[in-house]
Amino acid sequence: MENSVAPTALVTAVQDAIPDDAVLAHITTLFKVLGDKTRARILYALYESELSVSGIVAVLDMSQSSVSHQLQTLKQAGLVKNRRAGKVIYYSLADHHVISIFGQVIQHVNEDKH
């Protein structure tokens, strides 16, 4: 037998490991936010460098209103943060977790190409 844990004990252990509904709701919301191509493009740009809204507009050739709307969604999801320098607001990925997740997704997708 590969697994020395009794089947009922294994079931109980797995059941106990599953997060509660509030955590699962947050996880699914995060994946929904990540599942949008426009937001993924913005995240990829911010993965490469901190950028202002006008910088993102230029890099991605999008309208300012569209970029601002998507940044608001990304910020509400906790994926991006901003800082003000004078009149300019710069955006970056929120923290090392987001950087790591996005980096791993990119690496995973690129592995499938080879």
From TrEMBL:
It comes from the Bacteria. Signal peptide: none annotated. InterPro entries: ArsR-like_HTH, HTH_ArsR_DNA-bd_dom, Metal_resp_trans_reg, WH-like_DNA-bd_sf, WH_DNA-bd_sf. Residues 19-113 form the HTH arsR-type domain. The keyword Oxidoreductase does not apply. Keywords: DNA-binding, Transcription, Transcription regulation. PROSITE patterns: HTH_ARSR_2. Gene3D superfamilies: Winged helix-like DNA-binding domain superfamily/Winged helix DNA-binding domain. CDD domains: HTH_ARSR. Pfam families: HTH_5. NCBIfam families: HTH_metalloreg. This is ArsR/SmtB family transcription factor. It comes from Loigolactobacillus jiayinensis.
